Amino acid sequence: MKVMGIVGWSGSGKTSLLVEILPLLKERGLKVSTMKHAHHRFDVDKPGKDSFRHREAGASEVLVVTSSRWVLMHESREESEPSIESLIERMTPVDLLLIEGFKTHPHPKLEIHRKSEGKSLLCLEDPGIVAIASDCPLPELEIPRLDLNDTQAIADFILAHTGLHLR
Predict the structure, then answer these.
(1) Class of domain 2-40+81-162
(2) Is the pLDDT at 163 greater than 90, yes or no?
(3) Rounded to the nearest 5°, which phi and psi values hold at 36?
C-alpha cells in the first residue's frame, strides 16, 4: 500500500484538496483510503444511541454494522495515541492511503501553503515533505511547487511519486 500525506497549517485547505483529488484518483481505477489526524476530541457517536451506551458502560471496542457501512470505535481511555504504523496496519490494504495531518511523522508528504494565511513553510523544517502545493510562486524552494488550483497536476504528482501507474 502506497502512502502520501497531506500537511499544512490549520485552514490551509488540506481537506478541500483531498476531497477534490480523491475522485480524480478513483477515476483512474485506484482504490484509495484516507486517514485523518485530529488534535481535538471528537465523537462519531451520539448520546442515547445503543453504541454510545455500550462505550459509556465500558466496552473497549464497539463495532456498528449496517448494510451500507460499518465502523469500529476503539476507546483509548488511558492509553496513549497509537502510532501511525499501528493504525496503518489496521486498515484494509488499498492502492493508496492519503493521510491528512500527522505532520511530524516521516512518511512522504505534500504541503499545502496559502500566502493569505501568512504562515511559515513546513518544508523548510521537514525533509519528509516532497512537494508543495501553493497559490503563490515559491522560487527559492528545492522541492517541486505545484499550483494549488491544478488538482489534476497534484493527482499526477502523487501517482508519479508513489510509483502508481497512471490509468
Answers:
(1) alpha beta
(2) yes
(3) -125, 130
